[in-house]
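We were asked to recover a plausible sequence for a given structure. The inputs and outputs are reproduced exactly as logged, with field labels preserved.

PROBLEM: sequence recovery
POSITIONS: 401
GIVEN STRUCTURE:
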């Protein structure tokens, strides 16, 4: 254990937090931890409903890493059982039920990705199916009896769905209790989650008290807004940045965020001094943000490379140093077939739409100043090849054999 002053430790707990329930309890837990020379049990739970951990998840993981550096232990709960239900927090519709294989496949990637941030030696990975598969009906009914329907329906998202006549399954109603039981089984000292998890975390406190345990403290962190600048970062909304994405995609996505949310990204995802950043031009600041995040999840060398490449292509209007290549033995190519086969687009209809909307330009390799808009499906390729620019960020080199 690191013998760090209690006030310093509580400052780390509170940094960027929205709710701390309660500070007095956490201080008491920290004092006991130091006295007994026993690390606190810090709980974080993830239901593996998707494969990727994205930057939104890292807001909490970064907090936990700082507390690990003080000697505390993170209990990383993989909700392979609760994922079969699906967390209803913030949902307006029923979640689809995942198969065991989907859950298993997703869970395999979570721990590997989490250790890009967490200290593996101070992290315990626990699958919550371990205790639920052995729970009998009598124990389950005892758990259900610890909470009332009236209290469960205090949830804003539940009451709203009922007002709107939208379905609310019994599985979703019992989800907070099942998640809360995880806290009992591991005797959590503090549980961390996003602000949308506050209700679930408080149910965990109540459940521990029902089973005669000291209640866990609760710390909620802000939800990171996604690339659209409106909704929370989510894979289902396709507004996310995965921490295992290619450095090129990561850099480009960060550069695409609206300026007004950039400051929250700096505050929640980096250690960069905000006062210094706010003196910079927004474009320069965003470049720093993208560079900082890429080097965190790749390397300083790769971060430098992506920054130079972005400046070269988007500031200096030069062609990328590297791009996918399509080889053709014909003078003409069918753009729809080429874009789809090279996976530049998800469907032929998407390719057709981009062409119709004038979103493709053809650049002569022999004379990069010669740029032509493409409006037809079939195009001629210059003798020395060409580069297709698709939208603002995608490039495809065409080579004639």
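RECOVERED SEQUENCE:
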């Amino acid at each position: 254990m690191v013998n760090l002053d209690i006030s310093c430790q509580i400052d780390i707990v509170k940094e960027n937090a929205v709710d701390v329930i309660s500070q007095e309890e956490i201080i008491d837990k920290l004092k006991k931890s130091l006295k007994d020379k026993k690390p606190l049990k810090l709980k974080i739970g993830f239901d593996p409903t998707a494969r990727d951990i994205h930057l939104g998840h890292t807001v909490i993981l970064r907090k936990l890493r700082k507390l690990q550096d003080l000697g505390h232990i993170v209990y990383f709960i993989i909700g392979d059982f609760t994922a079969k239900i699906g967390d209803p927090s913030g949902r307006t519709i029923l979640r689809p039920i995942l198969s065991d294989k989907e859950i298993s496949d997703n869970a395999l990637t979570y721990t590997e990705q989490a250790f890009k941030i967490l200290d593996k030696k101070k992290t315990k990975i626990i699958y919550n199916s371990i205790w639920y598969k052995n729970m009998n009906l009598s124990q389950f009914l005892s758990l259900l009896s610890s909470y009332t329907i009236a209290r469960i329906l205090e949830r804003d998202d539940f009451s709203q769905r009922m007002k709107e006549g939208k379905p609310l399954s019994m599985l979703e109603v019992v989800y907070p209790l099942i998640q809360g039981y995880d806290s009992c089984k591991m005797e959590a000292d503090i549980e961390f989650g996003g602000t949308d998890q506050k209700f679930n975390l408080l149910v965990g406190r109540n459940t521990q008290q029902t089973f005669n345990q000291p209640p866990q403290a609760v710390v909620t962190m802000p939800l990171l807004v996604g690339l659209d600048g409106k909704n929370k970062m989510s894979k289902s909304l396709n507004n996310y940045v995965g921490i295992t994405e290619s450095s090129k995609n990561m850099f480009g996505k960060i550069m695409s965020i609206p300026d007004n949310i950039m400051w929250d990204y700096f505050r929640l995802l980096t250690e960069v001094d905000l006062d210094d950043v706010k003196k910079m031009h927004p474009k320069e600041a965003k470049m720093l943000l993208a560079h900082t995040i890429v080097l965190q999840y790749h390397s300083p060398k790769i971060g430098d490379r992506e920054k130079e490449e972005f400046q070269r292509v988007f500031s200096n209007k030069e062609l990328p140093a590297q791009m996918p290549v399509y080889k053709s033995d014909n003078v003409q190519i069918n753009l729809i077939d080429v874009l789809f086969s090279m996976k530049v687009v998800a469907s032929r209809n998407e390719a057709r739409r981009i062409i119709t909307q004038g979103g493709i330009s053809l650049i002569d390799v022999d004379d990069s100043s010669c740029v032509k808009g493409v409006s037809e499906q079939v195009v001629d390729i210059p003798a020395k090849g060409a580069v297709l620019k698709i939208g603002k960020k995608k490039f495809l080199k065409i080579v004639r054999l």
